[in-house]
Amino acid sequence: MHRVACPGSFDPVTNGHLDIIGRAAGLYDEVIVAVLTNVTKRSLFTVDERVEMLTEVTGRYGNVRIERFGGLLVGFCAAHGITSVIKGLRAVSDFEYEMQMAQMNYQMAKVETLFMTTNPQYSFLRSSLVKEIARYGGDVSGLVPDTVLSRLRQRLAQE
Ligand code: ADP
Q1: pLDDT at residue 38 in the model
Q2: Does residue 90 line the site of ligand 1, with CB under 6 A?
Q3: How far is the CA of 85 from the centre of ligand 1 (A)?
């Protein structure tokens, strides 16, 4: 069975993430979306909420599973029998950091990283920008799935 991990914070999941997850689901037997629980930056949504949204929007794929992970990605991979990771690349600016992570993960545990280039319509899209635009009343429909859109509106109305 060819299984791949798709790690990230997904705070919240965007159409850019979903595009990569869907394309990966067409290539692998199983895609495990690994939601980062490390508390390094303040998140808008709790891990449980992020997992709920991901579960809802990936429900149409029979071979996508959502899991949470903390600590090292290579530890998560070992625990789940995963030998490769897929990462979306938006622009050259993503590349330097991603290359270091990929090389380190290979060096540590022989975990391979495969890069998938973003669909050009999502190359500017990142969760932090979506939150910022939504916070100031901008329209983010078309950038995130509908369920995320309504949760964003709800959450920001409470702030
Ligand atoms: P973000 O930068 O949106 O907070 P994450 O940390 O959740 O993203 O990223 C998880 C993975 O998804 C990373 O590999 C990242 O490059 C990829 N990704 C994020 N946004 C996009 C996009 N618009 N197109 C392709 N890949 C993306």
Answers
A1: 82
A2: yes
A3: 13
